[in-house]
Amino acid sequence: MHTTTRRRALTGTALALAVATVLTACGGADSDSDSDADAAGPTSVTSATAAANPLVASFDGGLYILDGKTLKLAKTIELAGCNRVNPAGDADHVIVSTDSGFGVLDATGQTFTGVEYEGAKPGHVVRHAGKTVLFTDGTGEVNVFDPADLNGTEQPETRTYTSAAAHHGVAIELAGGELVSTLGTEEKRTGALVLDENNKEIARNEECPGVHGEAAARGEAIAVGCEDGVLIYQDGEFTKVDAPDDYGRIGNQAGSDASPVLLGDYKTDPEAELERPTRISLIDTEKKKLTLVGLGTSYSFRSLARGPEGDALVLGTDGAIRVIDPATGSVEKKIPAVRKWEEPLDWQQPRPTLFVRGATAYVSEPGERALHAIDLTTGEKTASVTLPERTNELSGVVAGH
After folding, report:
1. Closest by alpha carbon to 347, among 15, 38, 28, 2?
2. Which residues pair with 184 in a beta bridge?
């Protein structure tokens, strides 16, 4: 079932009324998921100061908007519940998950625009080839738009597709207009399909149990994670790359246009209450080969990122960012970032988070209520700030970096 349509946005007042009366927390089925979201809407704000290239950090009950260079706190927005944030794909906006859908925050203007993509359990936000794609888990709906059109209070022209069944999923639109979207139900996820620009199915593969997460590599190789490896779509064909273990789950990935190799997590215990992995996966999308690399430390689903030259970056629980050559798997250097930490059992609880923009790594340190900016080239901390509350998620605007 699918449609292509243009919708009107809620006004800022309507958005606030729609969500301000609900107090809720983040929710989701996957303990290592970075995509299930429920949050309540904006209630009030503090006075604002200017913030260049802003960052947005969530805390229990609101959002902080910070200057991207100095980390100076520019504005606090009170937002009931557990809030989730992702880059919108332009120089001004951030997508915020609310209880009623995806809301658009003008981080530069420091205000919600009133544009909202409604639907229960807003999930993954994906940016690729100049398009931003939203997947709403509670409805199975996919919305695709050009983030350059997020410049007012009207929703951009939007391509929509509705999955056959609602599920915890993800989608990505390719440069040629094909849409790769996951397959599944609330009980079982099985793989992915591909639609042409008219939403007609052109390819399908259901050999990816527990499909979760996505990433794009150089040459527009798209991978989704499976409980037994990864599924790659490239040049009109699916290829399954098996894990070396019967259960080798790759649920979170990070890609780079500068490298054909994807960075993924790697878990092997399906019965664990919380598995603290110490190996990462490197998936060579050209050779269709998966390699495991031991780190000597554990990490969380918010630990993976890519550097400006395609380096694989992992924030370990020992407090260091490992810079890994994706071609060889060798750890090039370790950059001290935060104190030692332990991943909490509840995935909704704060833990150090890595967000990379250009050659700067931003790392949160919830235990110290701190946030740091680190130059990936020199390894030096260029700025640090102590905030009123400990932060949870960390994101920012991305265009021009």
Report:
1. 28
2. 189
Q: If we measure between CA atoms, which residue out of 124, 146, 96, 92 comes closest to residue 400?
A: 92
Distance CA 65, CA 347 (A): 23
Q: Read off the pTM.
A: 0.90
Residue 9: which domain range?
4-396
Residue 386, in any domain of the structure:
yes
Residue 47: band (very low, low, confident or very high) from pLDDT cuts 50, 70, 90: low
Per-residue model confidence (pLDDT) at position 8: 34
What is the structure's pLDDT at 262?
Answer: 98
What tokens appear for 95 in the block? Answer: 């997508």
Band of pLDDT at residue 26, cut at 50, 70 and 90: low
How many Å apart are CA 299 and CA 318, to the nearest integer?
Answer: 9
The model's confidence at residue 348, banded by pLDDT at 50, 70 and 90, is confident
186 in any annotated domain:
yes
Sign of the CA dihedral running 165, 166, 168, 174: positive
pLDDT over 90 at 281, yes or no: yes
pLDDT at 49: 85
> Is 6:158 a contact under the CB 8 Å cutoff?
yes
Shortest CA distance to 265 belongs to which of 305, 207, 231, 238? Answer: 305
The total of other beta-carbon atoms located within 10 Å of residue 74's CB is: 23
Q: Which CATH number belongs to the domain containing residue 149 in this structure? A: 2.130.10.10
Q: What is the pLDDT of residues 218-264, one digit of tens each?
A: 999 999 999 999 999 999 999 999 999 999 999 999 999 999 999 99
List the structure tokens of 107.
């981080």
Q: Within its chain, how far is the Cα of 94 from the centroid?
A: 12
Q: Is residue 173 in some structural domain?
A: yes
Looking at the structure of the chain, the number of domains it has is 1
Could you tell me if residue 52 is inside a domain? Answer: yes
Mean pLDDT of 13-40: 38
